[in-house]
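Course exercise 7: structure representation. Students receive a sequence record and must write out the corresponding structure in token form. The form below is the worked example handed out in class, using Pyridoxal phosphate homeostasis protein (228 residues). Read each field label carefully; the graders check that inputs and outputs are placed in the correct fields and that the protein name is recorded exactly as given.

STUDENT ID: A-19
EXERCISE PROTEIN: Pyridoxal phosphate homeostasis protein
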Amino acid sequence: MSTIETQYQQVVNRIHGACDASGRKRGDVRLLAVSKTKPAEMVEACYHMGQRSFGENYLQDALDKITALSHLSDIEWHFIGPLQSNKTRPVANHFQWLETLDREKIAVRLNEQRPEGLPPLNVLIQVNISDEPQKAGIATNDVATFAQQLQSLPKLKVRGLMCIPEDTPNEEHLRHQFERMQQLLLELQQIVPEADTLSMGMSGDLELAIACGSTQVRIGTDIFGARN
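STUDENT ANSWER:
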């Protein structure tokens, strides 16, 4: 097997092992392969191993890959970077998911710009779960209000929550933040019953995230190698 095949399988095995250890079904947690800065050829190699969902942070780089891989009809593109208001149209036109929604202005623009022929854009509300001033995301106390606002936008489909937790070696701090996210998803489901996604956990903490209810982990370097 190639290096990318080996690394991809190792990540899949880690996810399966974490599901087994926490008593969850393997199918309950999906992998988002974070392909930012990586060439389309590497994405396609991963696709041929069965991966379908890919995460991109940088818009122009992502658009180039989307064009190059347009022959892969069932590939699913997630925008996972900060989104400025002047960049909403390409996301509305070319992506299936936006995982970093935290402003009503962005939501309104995406709703207005989503083409008629496409299904609603799946969105995750980004939560600043560690309450760090330099981080994007809304406060935990504002999730319900924001979710209510999004209900009036028919071309957006609220699918759940996303977070980037505190960068800390303290596992108890991380566990507390992940468990709070799980609770917030339950609260969100009272407003949006179809919200089914909790995007949390990366290479260093995926086992803990899965134990705390994550339904999607975002893995880049461990699959594709170090960033270019």
